[in-house]
Every structure is written in C-alpha cells, then in structure tokens.
Amino acid sequence: MPGNFHEVPASVVASWPKPNYVDPVRRAWLPILALFLVALTTLLVAGRFYMRAKKEAGAFGLDDVFIAIAWAVAVLMSASACIDADQKGLDRHTWDVPLDDYVGAALVGWIAQVLMLISCCATKISVLLFHRRLVKDIGNWIWAIWFAIAFTACYFVAILISYCFLCRPLDSYWLSYDLLHPYTRHYKCIDGTAFSLSIGVLSVVSDLYAVFLPMIVLRKHDLDVPRRQRIGLNIIFGLGALVAGAGIARTYYLWKINHNYDTSWTGFDLFVWSLLETHGAIICACAPSMR
C-alpha cells in the first residue's frame, strides 16, 4: 500500500469486529474544533489588518502578505479535515469505514498534508519577517533571521516536491485504495515511515527556531520595545513553545499511523494535532499586533 499506510495482514482483518456501517462508534467533534479554530484565527487576522490600517501596529508589510496566505490555506486545510472526518470515515475505526470511502479519504488526506505544509511555512516566514523589523539595526541577527527564512523556504520546496513524488504515478497514492475496482497499474512509493518522521522532525525544528531565535534577540539586546509589548512578546514565545509541542504530538501520530492498522482512528488524532499546530501558529503570529 502507498504513502503512510501498509498492507493489513489477513490475520489482523480476521480479528476485527464485524463492520458497522449503520451506527458505528464515532468521534464527531473534529468539525466543531475546526470551526472554532477558523473563527478564532479569522478574528485575529482581521484584527491584525485593522490595527495595521489604523497605524496602531506598524505599517503593512511583507509579513502581513504571508500571514494572509497562511490563514487562507489554513481555512482550506480545515475544510479538508472536516470532509475527511465527517464524510470519508476518519471519525470511526477502519473496520467501520465503507469500502467506497477509502479512495476519497486518501485523496483528501494528501491534499490536507500539502495545505498544512503551505500554511505552516507561510506562518513561520511571516513571524520571522515580523521580528526582522525589530532587529533592523542589529546586523548579525538580521543575517540569522534571513538564514532561517531561507531554510524555511528550502524546506517548503523540498517537502512539496516530495509530496508530488510520494508515489509514481502520483494518483496511485489514493487510487490504489479502491478495493472495489483494484488498481492495476504498476506503482512505486517512497518509505512512508522515514518520510513522515523526517517532515515531522524538520517541522518541529523550524517551529523551535521561529520561537527561540526572536526570544534570544529580545533578551540579549536592548531593543526599543515598550515594556508592555515586551511582556506580550514573551507570552507569545510561551504560546509558540506550545505550538512546537503540538508539532511534536503530530510527529508522534505520523509515526503511529505507520505502525497501527486502525489508520482512520489514528488519522483522526493526526488531524486534530495538525489543526492545533496550524492555527496555533497563526494565533502566535497575530497576537503581537493586538493591544
């Protein structure tokens, strides 16, 4: 099987309960979580732009462009999560998922992974560009931040290309799950376990430097930042550490989905932590603009 999944042994399938397609055990709260997070980030992004327009939080800049992209893509990613959970069986155990939902679930899952990559990288670049404003007179730190931005951009391009070549041909990633109409073309996929762990670890590393690099700058240099704003920034750094924690949890479920045959149930948890990481990062990026 392609991507993050593997063939389920017949002995394991035989041990599963009888499929329940009528009233299975479900976790139906993911859409509620997604809608709450979308509403919260929408409010904060709108507030950020409002403060910019009133000239009370600095002028519009490139960081605002990136956060707008991150927010728009996060909304699409949240919609993908809702579709997978509510319509494609991700809210139930694998043995209770109708066979004709498998292809759609795999396709929507692949789309959601790409959307999350775009949103998170755009948010990290936005955060780094914002802090570049604060250190515009400190040459060494400017170079450090530009290096971090370049690393994020390279990470984005590399992982995006990897997603596009996750399987060859790419459509085998989802079409090979069609158990009703078996996929007959020859296909080859990269090692899902190694790939998932790699992107998870790299994402957490980039989360950490996006948080701790600006924090180090703030503490080592007497920047012209009002005390109230300095306290606010330190709070944001703490929230950023929580976002990195969500990234660590997501990495764990990326690993677990490769070592667990109940992929839909584990995939639900993976989506939850992905939503928390994606929207949490946007919240942290917008919070400094609020007064």
What would you say this structure looks like, in words?
The mean pLDDT is 86. The chain has 291 residues and is mainly alpha-helical. Helix content is 69%, strand content 1%. It has a two-stranded antiparallel sheet. It has helices spanning 10-15, 30-53, 62-86, 102-134, 139-164, 172-175, 192-220, 227-256, 263-286, and strands at 167-168, 188-189. The chain has nine helices and two strands, in the order αααααβαβααα.
Write a short abstract of this structure.
The chain is an all-alpha fold and 291 residues long. It has helices spanning 10-15, 30-53, 62-86, 102-134, 139-164, 172-175, 192-220, 227-256, 263-286, and strands at residues 167-168, 188-189.
What is the fold's blueprint, element by element?
Elements: H1 10-15, H2 30-53, H3 62-86, H4 102-134, H5 139-164, E1 167-168, H6 172-175, E2 188-189, H7 192-220, H8 227-256, H9 263-286
Antiparallel strand pairs: 1-2
Membrane topology: Multi-pass membrane protein
Transmembrane segments: 28-50, 62-83, 103-130, 142-166, 194-219, 231-255, 270-290
Subcellular location: Membrane
Count of the domains: 1
Number of continuous helical runs = 9
Instruction: Give me the side-by-side strand order of the main sheet.
Output: 1-2
Order of helices and strands: HHHHHEHEHHH
Q: Helicity level, as a percent range?
A: 55-70%
* Rg from Cα: 21 Å
Beta-strand content: under 5%
Shape: elongated
Main β-sheet, in a few words? 2 strands, antiparallel
How far is the N terminus from the C terminus?
51 Å
Uncertain runs are none
Structural class designation: mainly alpha
The number of distinct β-strands equals 2
Mean pLDDT: 86
Family: Belongs to the SAT4 family.
Protein name: Rhodopsin domain-containing protein
Transmembrane segments: 28-50, 62-83, 103-130, 142-166, 194-219, 231-255, 270-290
Organism: Teratosphaeria nubilosa
